[in-house]
UniProtKB/TrEMBL annotation:
GO BP of this protein: DNA transposition
Record-annotated Transposase IS110-like N-terminal domain positions: 17-162
PANTHER family (UniProt xref): TRANSPOSASE (PTHR33055:SF13), TRANSPOSASE FOR INSERTION SEQUENCE ELEMENT IS1111A (PTHR33055)
Any Pfam family matching the protein: Transposase_20
NCBIfam families: transpos_IS110
Residue spans of biased composition, Pro residues class: 374-383
Domain Transposase IS116/IS110/IS902 C-terminal: from-to ranges: 292-360
Annotated segments matching region Disordered: 355-383
Lineage of the species this protein comes from: Bacteria, Pseudomonadati, Pseudomonadota, Gammaproteobacteria, Pseudomonadales
One GO MF term: DNA binding
Protein name per UniProt: ISPpu9, transposase
Length: 383
């Protein structure tokens, strides 16, 4: 009798489906009491994804839950989202089964069952326009990272030849450093002629630079230096192309604030000119509706990451506490016996959180006082 009176989970979504995403095939499960067959397998070709969406529409399915597996979910998500389905992109940790047998059929049925009772929550995904810009910003970040690796390999080749150029100038990819490196690759070996390429803004004198350029010019290290210098120049060109594509993506976004003023602080970049920085700054204000760079230690690059990862619409987060939790910047709630237990913030890989952590780390060296920030100077129109 007690078993009959036992409460069961309430059904929240009556017409839903669960999808186990894979690299070669997707397994889809629906309610076995309403449909037959209840589980179907689809390949990952585009026409198969369209057939999957057609089948779900024929069953009057309105809600779909799917695992965020690698990047394999993206084509299917785009097809289902374009068809008008309410798609829940779910973290695989939330769909982890209890110990026992495991198969693709059981996985998709488990996802369907969890979704039926409303036990899954969808991941945050901004609009398609913001996602397009996000891909460009991430691609640019990858190119900057690749360029940093090339610089490290150039430094390694110089150190192996005992060329101590990095000890006398702060950046070997600056004006003076690149002039000297290009001359070395072109065959110049005289320390006096190489040091004569010194820019007037370098603190080290010409004699000190010449002393640092005495070394053992080995052919294998010179070959590596030439290749890494060419790779550096190629990546610099690709970074500029990414900046141009990002500017075009920003121009396609809706404008929230048409009037923009001058930046409150100098905005410098190693890859953009001052005019490009100013144009990007104004475009970000128009899209976001606020000037993120007015916050101390947040520059154009960090503001661009925040804009591309979050976008201007934060309505998916009811409060700032929800946003902090999504970023992984808030400690988890752990209470036992009425006492809070110590615990660290959950380990979440989030580019927006990494950008905010970088800004917070830079704040330790910032000499300004955030509560004494002067107002931004008015522009030509008095705004």
């Amino acid at each position: 009798m007690a078993r009959k009176n036992q409460k069961r989970f309430e059904i929240i979504h009556h017409h839903c489906a669960g999808i186990d995403v894979g690299s070669r095939e997707h397994w889809v499960a629906v309610n076995p009491e309403q449909y037959d067959p209840a589980v179907r397998q689809f390949s990952t070709f585009t026409d198969d994804l369209i057939a999957l969406a057609d089948w779900l529409q024929s069953l009057n399915i309105s809600v779909v839950a799917m695992e965020a597996t690698g990047v394999y979910w993206i084509p299917l998500f785009e097809v289902l989202d374009a068809r008008g389905f309410e798609v829940y992109l779910v973290n695989s940790r939330a769909t982890r089964q209890t110990s026992g047998r495991k198969s693709d059929v059981l996985d998709c049925q488990w996802i369907w069952q969890l979704m039926t009772h409303g036990l899954l929550s969808g991941a945050f995904r901004p609009s398609d326009e913001i996602c397009s810009m996000r891909s460009l910003v991430r691609q640019r970040a990858n190119k900057v990272c690749d360029q940093a690796k090339s610089i490290n390999r150039m430094q390694k080749a110089l150190s192996q030849m005992n060329i101590q150029l990095a000890q006398v100038i702060s950046d070997i990819t600056g004006v003076t450093g690149l002039k000297i490196l290009r001359a070395i690759v072109q065959g110049e070996r005289s320390p006096e002629k190489l040091s004569a390429l010194r820019d007037g803004r370098i603190k080290a004198d010409q004699e000190t630079i010449a002393r640092s350029l005495h070394g053992n010019w080995r052919a294998e290290h010179l070959h590596a230096l030439g290749q890494e210098l060419a790779c550096h120049d190629f990546l610099e060109k690709q970074i500029a192309e990414c900046d141009q594509a990002i500017a075009q993506a920003l121009a396609r976004l809706p404008v929230l604030q048409p009037e923009t003023g001058l930046p409150c602080k100098p905005l410098r970049s190693a890859h953009r000119s001052a005019d490009q920085q100013l144009a990007l700054h104004q475009a970000l204000i128009k899209v976001m509706g606020v000037d993120l760079t007015a916050i101390p230690t947040i520059g154009i690059d960090i503001a661009l990451v925040l804009a591309s990862e979050l976008g201007p619409d934060l309505s998916r987060f009811p409060t700032s506490q929800h946003l902090s939790s999504w970023l992984g910047l808030a400690p988890p709630t752990r209470i036992s016996g009425g006492k809070p237990l110590p615990g660290k913030a959950p380990k979440i890989i989030n580019r927006a959180a990494q950008a905010l952590k970088q800004a917070a780390s830079n704040a330790r060296q910032d000499k300004s006082f955030y509560w004494r920030q002067p107002p931004c100077p008015p522009d030509a129109d008095g705004h």
